[in-house]
Write a structure and sequence with these properties.
By secondary structure, the protein is of the alpha+beta class. It is built from 17 helices and 17 strands. The strands form 4 sheets. A 5-stranded antiparallel sheet has the order 2-1-5-4-3, with helices on both faces. The protein has a 5-stranded antiparallel sheet with strand order 7-6-10-9-8. It has a 5-stranded mixed sheet with strand order 12-14-15-17-16. α11 runs antiparallel to α12. The longest helix is centred in the N-terminal third of the chain and has 61 residues. The protein is rod-shaped and about 180 Å long.
């Protein structure tokens, strides 16, 4: 179905709805349209404002996190410069330049001064987990005891050590990692470190490494939005917070970070959830703070507003239904009154009038209806009376020209003369003609029995046999209980005449009449074995009968068939009438369908005639 047909179907459906339903739909659509437009504008404005405020707040929060973290990092990188100004520390590191295969720990004379020095650096700094100074031979001096860290590290080449050496004296921010000098190998720290050089020769003497607790960042981000996920990465996109093993994020997230501008935001889907991502990078340390906030939480208040708008629209529609039902009742009531009156007028009750008290268009329509019915009633009365007068005049003229008794007596005299002369064929023909004349002129009854109609048919066939000869055959097959069945007068004779005049060959033929009961209806079939009818002519004749056009066909008289069909439908209803069938050179048949009525039952035509 194309769009045009769809629109036409919708249009036809709307036109078929009752007027009251249309009014209610109009009320509902107006409220729905108005509420939807206002609600959509309100929702859009509120959602845009909520998103802008959230973005501004998140950007400020990310900037604050970076500022707090930079303050600690600046303090740590200052602490990392302290060994350059302590000659005792430099001398101790100078004595541990050559790696040794023998596992030897530094003597107390070195460990104690170094411990005191490192402890002075860490005093009152709870965010520091430990400060470690590692010599080139793998010896570690730390503020932590030997139960926590190793005093000798055999693996002096790993990722974080290589990064410190590669920095060549610059301070380095190390992301979360697990140093090999902790006895607990699951210890994760992020650190600030740098290479220690001899001030005079610039030769590397060791490394100072300040390990920071993760609790430091936990404290920094504790004031952020609880619904947001915060990630802190170094300039190489290595995680500082949280631990990689704890983060609930896909690896593809890293490629998204690289394409994001500084101090900007974007929306990204992660694991089927849409997030608003705020990104801020520190110009001092290169640290990137990323905040992911589910859009569902950003628009939670907006979604609440949407629910309220939907509820308002639903309530508005219900109110419109109620108002449409109440307000349309008096208007539609007047229309229903007018429609009922029109229905009664359609059935012939021209005395029907309507009373409408309103002065609007419906009231004017009711007044116009009353005036129209008055005029129709007057015209019908005049036409009916004029028609009666014309009929009476025609009947008087006919009666004055033809005296039935005179015709009967004349035919009887001819009959007696034929018998006297011995011409029995003429006598039979005159007798049959007299019966036909009496049957036709008798107006005492318009509804007769099937037996009376068949008696008339026999007289008619008898006259035709004199004209055609004995080659004209006539047969009846009537169920015994149908002889007294009632049917309209002269309904079979035109069909038999059609069969003789148009259906049979010149040399004669066979006419067969059958009466039977089928599906509770009386069926009368008139069939001949004559020339038949072509498929094309049969189709045309069926169309003529169905449309009740009084146009004759070439082989069968359409006027007689159409008149009989129309007469039966007028008397009994649209389900009754005639059906035709036939084949070329194989005869033609007409079947009448009537209700089963017998003597003593009232019929529509009897009531009319009475």
């Amino acid at each position: 179905m194309n769009m045009r047909k769809f629109h036409q179907t919708i249009k036809n459906y709307l036109l078929s709805l009752p007027y009251r339903v249309k009014l209610i739909l109009v009320f509902s659509l107006l409220i729905l349209l108005t509420a939807s437009i206002l609600g959509s504008i309100t929702y859009y404005k509120f959602a845009k404002s909520s998103q802008d405020k959230t973005e501004e707040y998140q950007i400020q929060l990310a900037d604050q996190i970076n500022q707090h973290l930079n303050r600690y990092l600046k303090e740590m990188q200052i602490i990392s410069l302290s060994p350059f100004y302590d000659q005792e520390v430099l001398d101790i590191l100078q004595s541990h330049q050559t790696p040794s295969d023998v596992t030897s720990f530094p003597p107390a004379a070195e460990r104690v001064p170094m411990w005191r020095y490192i402890s002075s650096l860490i005093h009152m700094r709870n965010e520091i987990r430990g400060i470690h100074i590692m010599a080139n031979d793998g010896t570690i001096f730390s503020n932590l005891d030997s139960n926590t860290v190793l005093l000798k590290v055999f693996e002096t080449e790993n990722d974080w050590i290589n990064r410190i050496k590669k920095a060549d004296g610059e301070w380095v921010l190390l992301p979360l990692h697990k140093p090999n000098y902790y006895l607990n190998k699951d210890t994760s720290v992020f650190s600030v470190a740098r290479l220690i050089r001899d001030p005079s020769s610039h030769e590397p003497l060791g490394i100072i490494k300040i390990d920071l607790k993760q609790e430091l960042i936990n404290e920094i981000v504790s004031n952020s939005n609880a619904k947001s996920h915060i990630f802190i990465l170094d300039k190489n996109n290595q995680f500082i917070y949280p631990d990689k093993e704890d983060k609930l994020i896909e690896s593809s997230f890293l490629s998204e970070i690289e394409n994001i501008k500084v101090n900007n935001y974007t929306n990204i889907p992660i694991n089927g959830t849409d997030y608003m991502m705020v990104y801020h990078q520190s110009s001092y340390s290169g640290v990137k703070t990323i905040m992911l906030t589910p859009r569902a939480s950003v628009f939670s208040e907006v979604n609440h507003l949407r629910k309220v708008i939907i509820l308002v629209v639903i309530v508005g529609i219900l109110i419109s239904f109620l108002l449409g039902f109440l307000l349309s009742k008096p208007l539609v009531g007047s229309i229903h009154t007018l429609r009922k009156a029109m229905g009664k007028v359609e059935k012939g009750n021209f005395a029907q009038r309507v009373t409408i008290k309103s002065n609007d268009e419906i009231g004017e329509l009711g007044n116009g209806f009353n005036l129209m019915i008055n005029e129709i009633d007057r015209l019908v009365s005049e036409v009916y009376k004029t028609s009666l007068r014309e009929k009476e005049a025609e009947i008087r003229a006919l009666q004055s020209q033809m005296n039935p008794h005179f015709l009967y007596n004349t035919l009887e005299s001819i009959n007696m003369l034929a018998i006297t002369k011995g011409n029995l064929e003429v006598s039979d023909m005159v007798s049959s003609l007299g019966k036909l004349l009496r049957y036709t002129i008798d107006n005492s009854s318009k509804i007769i029995t099937l037996d009376e109609e068949l008696s008339f048919i026999r007289s008619y066939v008898a006259i035709q046999k004199v004209r055609i000869g004995e080659n004209l055959q006539y047969t009846e097959d009537i169920e015994p209980n149908l002889n007294k069945a009632l049917l309209p007068k002269l309904v079979l004779q035109p069909l038999v005449e059609n069969a003789i005049v148009h259906g049979l060959f010149q040399q004669g033929g066979h006419i067969f009449i059958k009466a039977y009961v089928e599906s509770g209806f009386l069926k009368i079939s008139i069939r001949d074995n004559g020339k038949g009818i072509t498929e094309l002519d049969l189709t045309k004749l069926k169309r003529l009968i169905e449309n009740q056009h009084t146009v004759s066909s070439e082989k069968h008289n359409g006027i007689a068939l159409t008149n009989v069909h129309e007469r039966l439908q007028l008397l009994y209803g649209k389900q009754f009438g005639i059906t035709i069938d036939g084949r070329e050179q194989n005869g033609f048949s007409v079947t009448l369908t009537l209700p089963i009525q017998r003597m003593g039952e009232e019929t529509r035509e009897r009531n009319i005639s009475g």
